Hints:
Blueprint: H1 12-15, H2 18-34, H3 38-51, E1 55-56, E2 68-73, E3 77-82, E4 93-98, E5 103-114, E6 117-125, E7 138-145, E8 151-156, H4 175-178, E9 194-198, H5 213-226, E10 236-242, E11 247-249, E12 255-258, H6 261-275, E13 284-289, H7 306-319, H8 324-332, E14 335-339, E15 342-343, E16 365-368, E17 372-373, H9 384-396, E18 401-403, E19 413-414, H10 418-422, E20 427-432, E21 434-435, E22 443-446, H11 447-462
Parallel strand pairs: 1-2, 4-13, 4-14, 14-20, 15-21, 16-18
Antiparallel strand pairs: 2-3, 3-13, 5-6, 5-10, 6-9, 7-8, 7-10, 11-12, 12-22, 16-20, 17-19
Helix pairs in contact: 2-11, 6-11
Amino acid sequence: MLRxxxxxxxxxxxxxxxxxxERFAEDYKQFLNRVKTEREAVNYIKNMAEQNGFRNINEIxxxxxxxxxxGVFRNKMIILAIIGTKDITKGVRxxxxxxxxxxxxxxxxxxxxxxGIALFKTHxxxxxxxxxxxxxxxxxxxxxxxxxxTKKEIVIGEDENDPVFVIPDLLPxxxxxxxxQRQGFDIILGEExxxxxxxxxxxxxxxxEVKNRVKEFVLRILKEKYGIEESDLVSADLxxxxxxxxxxxxxxRSMIAAYGQxxxxxxxxxxxxxxxxxxxxxxxxxxxxxxxEIGSDGDTGMKSRFFELFLSSLIEKVKGETxxxxxxxxxxxxxxxxxxxxxxxxxxxxxVHDTQNAGYLGKGVILTKYTGSGGKYGASEAHAEYxxxxxxxxxxRGIPWQVGLLGKVDEGGGGTIAKFLAxxxxxxxxxxxxxxxxxxxxxxxxxxxxxSTYLAYKAFYEE
Length: 463
């Protein structure tokens, strides 16, 4: 057993098996390289679940201890569960992570031509520094749904032989007046996040004049390769994401640099944790939700009632009946982890942190009692009794952990899905690894923190 409350004084690397850390990190990097959108995350999680004995809850009439089920909602939200031996209404163990990440979404009418260049207009999703997305190789992921319901899946820019897409920045020689007088966050504006998609003109036709010949050539490619007309782009979910692979970072290869680690690092740790659990006493649930980066609104976010529907189905198939009382009892008696990242101290900008109450890279999973902003607005706060219960689990298993808050008071802040779990009466606390360069196109994590997070989530399910 590790002793002492202030675990941030301890290096996670010194408490864990380095070979196990490296193996886990390699699997995680492969996951990041394959999963760039919420739809791709759901498909990956569903496939992994089925390979490990999980079945669609809609195909099962009754459930008994040890049974594994999942439910998918509109291809952007998925829930996994393993039935425990205890009465389900006495409470379940929930870990909830979000699978959406900051990105650039194509607008409904994105394609236009200007100055002989074809471009896509975008609208950024989530909190980003817009200037970080210029002159960066971008890949296009998503689906286009035709009027007849046919779904065309698109991934362009991930293979080495694929083209990539780029948002053009202004050369420094001409930027003094245009950009030099702007504030940092507005060096590039939202309406300047237009992606170059073509520069070759379509051939002239003798029988008619072709306007916007570069745009026309792009449309011909979309038609020939995907069967997509320009009007079909209205019914599409198309996302521009960094065309970057997850890479080891540092001479010591102790870190990972990759796109989308907030919050797919927690999603992956949650998935691996529930896949490695067998015969739990309490029913365990893994939530993978969408829309967290924009407030959890929408039908596939944590505010969605699909969670209650899934939980009601569990209760009914376990007990043979369900009602509001059973559902509310289960919620009130449940315990949860909001699996989300925190801001690790960046040595170049330490002054934005209260360093005594901040997490550090390589010191283990971060326990965050509350988030929100000045005055603790916009977040739930874990009760002292619940924090003590979590601490005991982590110390009992010798899992490296530390406390952390999201910056100094009145410096900033942020929120997670914790408050939406808490609104349902569930005891919840935020817990996940720290990141550096969060919400950038290339975030940095510690391999040891990743593995500590997995161990913490697995212990939460099992203890």
